[in-house]
UniProtKB/TrEMBL annotation:
Protein name per Swiss-Prot or TrEMBL: Membrane protein
Pfam families: Phage_holin_4_2 (PF04020)
PANTHER family the record matches: SLR0284 PROTEIN (PTHR37309:SF1)
Tagged with keyword Membrane: yes
Length: 115
């Protein structure tokens, strides 16, 4: 139940960011839900592999290279999902940072409701 609620909140965040950012587009709510699911899968499987492979660059940049990895994950989701579009690396980077902020806010609200 908690996983489904988090996916729905992530889909709402994706929809909101698609409305705000001109370089990001989502066709409808179903596409946003698919984006949330695909991002969860990519963050679970692909992201740890990329972090391990790019560990020297991540250490050298004091962790800032993780932003590039997040943008790459967003662009991978753009490649796999027909109803989701991101216009380049810069928009993927901005989208990933803002999505992380929105997810933190929404999930902290969710934790407060549990207590």
């Amino acid at each position: 139940m908690n996983l489904i609620l988090k996916l729905i909140l992530n889909a709402l965040a994706v929809l909101l960011l698609a409305k705000i950012l001109p370089g990001v587009g989502v066709d409808n709510y179903v596409s946003a839900l698919i984006v949330a699911v695909v991002l969860a899968i990519l963050n679970t499987i692909v992201k740890p592999l990329l972090i391990i492979l790019t560990l020297p660059a991540t250490i050298l940049t004091l962790g800032l290279f993780l932003l590039v990895i997040n943008a790459a994950i967003i662009l991978l989701a753009d490649y796999f999902i027909a109803g989701f579009s991101v216009n380049g690396w810069l928009w993927a980077l901005i989208f990933s940072v803002l999505l992380s902020v929105f997810q933190s806010i929404l999930h902290s609200i969710l934790k407060k409701d549990k207590n």
